[in-house]
User: Which sequence fits this backbone?
């Protein structure tokens, strides 16, 4: 006797349809609420925004189809858009400084002296505070004249006083510096965790081979910190492109619109007191989305490589 | 260990290090220390231009008392709690289910759905803003806490699913197989086998989401308006326009607004850091 080619579909004990297909059906039942919610509030709105961006719309009345009109206006010399775009680039590049700064502080703190745990927490805790409060704290820190602590400190060295947030040349940098504060703390904690897992045998072996200082760091430690660096990179890029709270709180886009970024400009166009230009706002959001999509694709691709390796 | 442990270095560096630590910490926290100093000064110091001199009187109780008893601050704080706590429960519940489905079962589209959750979690908020605001308006939930909670739950499910799924993947799979051989129903496996093992992940996610949602500002100003439903991050800006240039009150208000997540962090530090650094170590 050979085994039947068709699997036996009639087991002796009659079971319910659910019992029969339990393994195949259960994951979908568990996924259903999550997927529904996520689709309704995240996935579908992305496509809706694309659709809205082809219209002129005040958010209340009828939408008027304008085709690529919004994009033509946006990319055809909208000064505010250009300023926002360049500021986004500044954010991206300068925000990445959080990674080496975080690494530096984590190396400084990676010791086992008394009270070091408390030090680590205190160094980290700017990240826990809301960006709104960090923004306020820094805008008072930067207060012009002798009101701000910063000017009092640099005054000791005979510099200043500066009006950082009041001048279009320095305002964006002032905001980025405020943003770097919690972001550096985040990168620091990632690296502290990474350093904890560095293989001590490799370090000892490298020491015996005479490696030390920056050579040890560069050739032995940093390669082992690669997973931490990847995550630091992901969260910093996303953070840089999401910058909104700091700008809204510290300068509200000013002075003279010099601190706008795309996320802020989009909000301003769609929900400002000058009227709701939702179509135009959606077009700005789409441009920002495509900038982000480049990074998202890269992140997902890296994660996919890991997944394949894991199977 | 790298860098070289301090015990094995020269005596002079050991002493330098011990002095350096607190000095660097003070410089690092300087902006915050400045605000703390502001918040205990009397009003007169600011009108007299005594911003950085010694406070002419100690007004901590007065200033914080004003924040708590003479402003809308307590309402905003209460709103924040009423938004944050349901969101934490909702997002953790939904994502422990999705994480279980994606972490335990092999089926077509598993990885695709997983990547959809991750990708959605990274998109800029602005691409969701107009449609989500519309949806909330059409559900009659604009300017309500419920409207804000529903969105937060949905959005946080993305990140939480990533977290839960990876955590469940790392659990010993034979445990689940053994339960199956015993004939335990799948939903019971979830409830009685997997869920108890997920306690550390649940705790880590809960503190993380608490902090994320408490600190949200963008959605608060997009989906809510007044002191009836706005959380404290949005409330603090109207608080500040009410007390314009009253730095002692504004800084006291900011400190109060920032406190709950800070307390959460110091209480649940281990879980918090375990959550944030997920994936930082292979």
Assistant:
């Amino acid at each position: 006797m050979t085994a039947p080619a068709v699997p036996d579909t009639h087991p002796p004990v009659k079971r319910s349809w659910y019992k029969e297909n339990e393994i195949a059906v259960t994951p979908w039942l568990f996924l259903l609420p999550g997927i529904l919610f996520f689709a309704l509030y995240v996935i579908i709105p992305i496509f809706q925004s694309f659709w809205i961006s082809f219209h002129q719309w005040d958010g209340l009345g009828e939408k008027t189809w304008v085709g690529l009109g919004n994009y033509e206006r946006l990319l055809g010399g909208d000064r505010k858009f250009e300023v926002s775009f360049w500021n986004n680039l500044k954010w991206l590049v300068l925000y990445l400084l959080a990674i080496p700064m975080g690494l530096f502080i984590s190396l400084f703190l990676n010791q086992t002296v008394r009270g070091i745990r408390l030090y680590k927490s205190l160094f980290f805790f700017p990240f826990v505070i809301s960006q709104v409060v960090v923004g306020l704290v820094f805008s008072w820190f930067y207060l012009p004249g002798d009101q701000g602590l910063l000017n009092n400190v640099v005054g000791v060295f005979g510099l200043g006083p500066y009006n950082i947030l009041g001048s279009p040349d320095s305002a964006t940098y002032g905001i980025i510096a405020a943003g770097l504060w919690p972001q550096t703390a985040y990168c620091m904690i990632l690296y502290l965790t990474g350093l904890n897992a560095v293989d001590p045998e490799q370090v000892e072996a490298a020491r015996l081979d005479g490696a030390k200082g920056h050579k040890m760091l560069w050739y032995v430690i940093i390669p082992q910190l690669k997973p931490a660096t990847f995550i630091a990179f992901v969260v910093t890029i996303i953070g840089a492109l999401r910058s909104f709270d700091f700008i809204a709180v510290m300068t509200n886009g000013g002075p003279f619109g010099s601190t706008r970024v795309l996320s802020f400009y989009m909000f301003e166009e769609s929900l400002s007191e000058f009227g709701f230009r939702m179509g135009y706002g959606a077009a700005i959001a789409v441009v920002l989305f495509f900038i982000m999509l480049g990074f998202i694709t890269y992140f997902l691709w890296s994660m996919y490589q890991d997944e394949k390796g894991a199977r | 260990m790298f860098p070289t442990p301090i015990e094995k270095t020269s005596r002079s560096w050991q002493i330098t290090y011990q002095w350096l630590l607190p000095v660097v910490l003070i410089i690092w926290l300087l902006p915050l220390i400045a605000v703390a100093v502001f918040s205990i000064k009397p009003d007169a110091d600011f009108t007299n231009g005594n911003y950085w001199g010694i406070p002419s009187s100690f007004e901590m109780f007065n200033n914080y008392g004003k924040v708590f008893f003479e402003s809308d601050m307590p309402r905003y704080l209460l709103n924040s709690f009423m938004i944050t706590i349901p969101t934490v429960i909702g997002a953790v519940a939904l994502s422990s289910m999705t994480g279980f489905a994606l972490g335990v079962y092999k089926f077509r589209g598993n990885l695709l759905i997983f990547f959809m959750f991750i990708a959605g979690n990274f998109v800029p908020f602005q691409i969701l803003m107009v449609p989500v605001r519309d949806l909330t308006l059409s559900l009659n939930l604009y300017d309500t806490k419920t409207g804000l909670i529903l969105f937060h739950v949905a959005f946080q499910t993305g990140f939480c699913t990533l977290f839960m799924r990876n955590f469940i993947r790392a659990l010993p799979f034979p445990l689940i197989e053994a339960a199956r051989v015993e004939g335990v129903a799948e939903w019971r496996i979830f409830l009685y086998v997997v869920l108890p093992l997920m306690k550390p992940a649940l705790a880590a996610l809960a503190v993380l989401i608490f902090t994320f949602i408490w600190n949200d500002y963008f959605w608060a100003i997009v989906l809510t308006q007044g002191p009836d439903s706005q959380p404290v991050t949005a409330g603090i800006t109207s608080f500040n326009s009410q007390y314009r240039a009253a730095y002692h009150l504004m800084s006291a208000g900011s400190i109060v607004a920032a406190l709950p997540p800070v307390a959460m962090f110091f209480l649940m530090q281990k879980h918090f850091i375990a959550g944030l650094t997920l994936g930082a170590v292979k």
Q: What stands out?
A: Chain B touches chain A through 97 residues (CB under 8 Å).
